[in-house]
Amino acid sequence: MTKPMINPTRLLLALVCSALLITPVMAAESSTASSPWQGTWVSVLPPLLAIVIALIFRNVIPALFIGLVAGIWIHNGLTLPGLGWSILESFQKYTVDALANRDHATVILFSLMIGGMVGITARNGGMVGIVNHIIKWANSVRRASLATVGMGLAIFFDDYANTLVVGNTMRPVTDKLRISREKLAYFVDSTAAPIAAIALITTWVGFESGLIGDAIAPLTDFPAQSGYSVFLKTIAYSFYPILALLLTILVAASGRDFGPMYQAELLARQGKMQDNRLVNHPQEEISPKEGKPRRAINALLPIAALIITVMLGLYHTGYGDGKSLQQIIGDADAYKALLWGSLVGMLTAALLSLVQGILTLEEVVDAWYQGMKSMLIAMVILILAWSLAAVTDALHTKDFLASLVSGRVTAQWIPTLIFLLAAATAFATGSSWGAMGILIPLLVPLMWTVMQAQGLADPSHMYLMYVAIASILAGAVWGDHCSPISDTTILSSMASGCDHIQHVRTQIPYALYAGSVAIFLGIIPVSFGWPVWLALLLSALVLGLGLWLFGKKVPDHAIAIG
């Protein structure tokens, strides 16, 4: 006997009516008093609930909304009237606040302009022109994969620009060679934040070195040095970002995969995606205008204009007399530079289309709109993710996670615990920068205090401080990679045209693999005195050996390149 089906429309109507009935009984809006659950284990439930629901049902939007409402309800005291108000407050307060944030608005506009630029370059034939040129060399799965990773490493200065440019540029190439969208999203995501986190001049450097500088400034007996110089010394100890980048190169070069990614690649070779939709779905792509030339320059120039404008914008907004290039980039307004770059790139694509007579003004506007429209779902996800992050901040989720390592433990084990804590914080909140922002000021003084108490605050043991700081940065990147509510993970899925939950499911095994090697062959041995070069060498060897033993090569037969 079949079970009675629940009508989703009636269910939604019942929920709305319940909320409207409950709301009037409240004398005022939700109380601004502190919730009794702030800073407790309960504060971790909203993001975990969102993550579990997203992974089970493979739909991140309702998962984020449920997690958001649950978090607001907890903040409002877990009362019955509070539940009704939480549903309304999720939209009226937290969503509005997320949109009103200037940095968030910049990311939305930047992403929409990139989408518009991609739409125009797809319509004027520029993207097809790039594909035709790249395919002359990248005419195999291996070469196309290496080209994608290489482009990801080349655009090192910002993770947002990296994901959007590399994903949108290489997607037609990987589709043509029947490389799965999941594999493309993995390459994009795993070369964006890791390279931006450890490169010498990036939009991350100012944020990271600023936090480090503020954290070490008040420490007694700490050797006098700038935050940037300390950051430089932590790069060699940033095991996860280094190994994550190395793993992408090994996967691309060997063609070996494991876990859900292997299944995604098998389906892609058959011309299908995980949900059995054709890779080249006719409704997903903007077709070039018939009868017009396919010139690669019409896509390359807008991309070059975007990158050059961003770099010049970083220099302009951070410039000051007597500053080094590192200080200029570190003090720059990255959001402003990205906004300028996206606008210039879009205008360049539009002008090239008009001047050459490839598109009319009306066709340019239509292509621009179609490109932006493809970003809509991702923008909704981003807004909900930001709203959920605000709730976890109000519940002091990060403070609770940070308190877990405040117990009595030897200094050599603290870097490992710090990595796990930073990973959990970034995973639960979806923000690597958020994890860094709360944990660096909290844990760097803690590490120094423990070193002083245990007689290790001397030059010969300074590596413990460097590996501890590096573990915060690396753990935050790991959590950001694995979290389905992370903005860079969402942008990687969007730019690659990949189902978001499929991207998370296929990338997590790779992140777990690199992260495990980073902990057991990197952080722990180095904390107990191993030379960092030996740990890096052994980690790289084990990483490659494990991929060779447990990974399987997907056959490249039946790939049509014509």
Report what the structure shows.
With 562 residues, this protein is an all-alpha fold. It is built from 25 helices and 2 strands. The chain has a two-stranded antiparallel sheet.
Give the helix level as a range of percent.
over 70%
The run of helices and strands is: HHHHHHHHHHHHEHHHHHHHHHHHHHE
Q: What proportion of the residues form beta strands (DSSP E)?
A: under 5%
Shape: globular
Mean pLDDT: 80
Strand and helix map with partners:
Elements: H1 8-22, H2 45-57, H3 60-75, H4 80-100, H5 102-123, H6 126-137, H7 141-154, H8 159-176, H9 181-198, H10 203-216, H11 227-234, H12 239-254, E1 256-257, H13 260-269, H14 297-318, H15 325-331, H16 334-355, H17 361-373, H18 376-394, H19 397-403, H20 414-429, H21 432-453, H22 462-482, H23 487-496, H24 500-527, H25 532-550, E2 552-553
Antiparallel strand pairs: 1-2
